[in-house]
């Protein structure tokens, strides 16, 4: 996958992180820390999990216009779980693997590291279908909290304004 293909997703993630840093509570250890029981995010995760089987089927048999498959999952290696995106996914013999797409806070992990991803830890997913990002249920929740200019840019990068 080329750098230009990943650029829109990278820009959107950077904007989300920057927005989170600017609007996160003081002393917050992560940029986008939110309550795990927040109703909108609980629903977003439930929607993503309800459609996860269809996503994994699509990953294994993509259409010609599909690209940038990714999942958001929990790393449970520290005192509290970290939510992080992985891309460059492969699903072989029931094993999902990917490359960390963010710089993790959790010790022992690094940006670009290949990891095995347990299906029960997946909380969101996404892929481009003919240039339009599908899924990204949690991103859609965070989108409503962004300043208007960041919302507009993110919608454009995700192909949601077409």
Short key terms for the protein model shown above:
single chain, 162 residues, alpha+beta, six-stranded antiparallel beta sheet, 5 helices
In short:
With 162 residues, this protein is α+β, with helices and mostly antiparallel strands. It has 5 helices and 6 strands; from the N terminus they run αααββββββαα.
Number of domains: 1
Quaternary structure of the protein: single chain
How large is the radius of gyration?
Answer: 15 Å
The tally of beta strands, per DSSP, is 6
Helix content: 25-40%
Alpha-beta classification: alpha+beta
Distance between the termini: 24 Å
Q: Walk across the major sheet and give the strand order.
A: 4-3-2-1-5-6
Mean pLDDT: 84
Helix count from the secondary structure assignment: 5
The succession of helices and strands, N to C, reads: HHHEEEEEEHH
Q: What general form does the structure show?
A: globular
Uncertain regions spanning at least 5 consecutive residues: 18-31
Largest sheet: 6 strands, antiparallel
Beta-strand proportion? 25-35%
Structure, described:
This protein has 162 residues and is α+β, with helices and mostly antiparallel strands. The chain has one domain (3-158). Helix content is 37%, strand content 27%. The protein is built from 5 helices and 6 strands; from the N terminus they run αααββββββαα. β5 (122-129) and β6 (132-135) form a beta hairpin. The longest helix has 21 residues, at 3-23. 26% of the residues are buried. Residues 18-31 have low confidence and may be disordered.
């Amino acid at each position: 996958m080329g750098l230009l293909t990943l650029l829109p997703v990278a820009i959107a993630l950077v904007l989300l992180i920057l927005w989170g840093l600017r609007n996160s509570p003081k002393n917050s250890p992560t940029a986008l820390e939110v309550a795990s029981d927040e109703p909108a995010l609980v629903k977003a995760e439930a929607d993503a999990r309800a459609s996860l089987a269809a996503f994994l089927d699509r990953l294994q048999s993509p259409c010609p216009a599909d690209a940038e498959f990714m999942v958001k999952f929990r790393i449970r290696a520290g005192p509290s779980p970290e939510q992080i995106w992985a891309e460059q996914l492969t699903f072989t013999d029931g094993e999902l693997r990917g490359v960390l797409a963010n710089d993790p806070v959790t010790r022992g992990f690094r940006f670009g590291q290949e990891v095995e991803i347990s299906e029960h830890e997946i909380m969101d997913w996404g892929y481009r279908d003919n240039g339009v990002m599908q899924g990204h249920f949690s991103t859609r929740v965070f989108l409503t909290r962004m300043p208007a200019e960041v919302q507009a840019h993110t919608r454009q990068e995700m192909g949601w304004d077409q």
